[in-house]
Amino acid sequence: MVEKVRLRSSRRALPLLLVLLLAGGCSRIPKIIVLSDPLTAAEHVELGVAYERKGELDLARREYERALLKDRKFYRARVNLGNIFLAKKEYGRAREEYLLALERRPGDAEATNNLSWAAIFSGEGTDEALARMESVVSGPRGRRATLLDTLGVLRMRANRPGPAEEAFDLAGTLCRQAGAAPREGVNGDAPCPEEVLREIEDHREELRRRFPSPSPAPAD
Question: What is the second-level CATH architecture of the domain 40-106?
């Protein structure tokens, strides 16, 4: 019974409250503020890259996702978001982002290369990744050490040691040639960093461990 009395009392007070607010002028009525995102999609990506360089992957991911809210077709945001998922070992989600990026730029070398590493790390989709990498490497800009190294690893995972060895050999050769260039490598590429050459050699050693050469037959 008490609650009903309170309810009726509040209903009678409501018109009086409105009258007082109106009499006091509009300045007393609270204003609704609509917040908007002042950054462009490209600016969100730049901010994400800055976070990523500092190792703040969750903040970087947030910025790439915000960029995609601004522009769902933004290739760079897709690839960078895929890279975050790859670093966090969320390989399925990384693969999804790279495939979306490839819808925007079919045959793109960077997205294809990173998609390949998602397949290498997860062990899933290796055949598809290998077919895509074979196509990229056969193109006019495909003779690059990093791409050939990725191709070699894919071939190794597909139990193709001979073609894998060929890819590593060519990757090492191109890397050494680029490293010897005074300003830029072959085909206008940047010089090949020393760590890339070491990685190629590490993959070559892995290949030899996986597929050891048969011992020579004893001489008669």
Answer: Alpha Horseshoe (1.25)
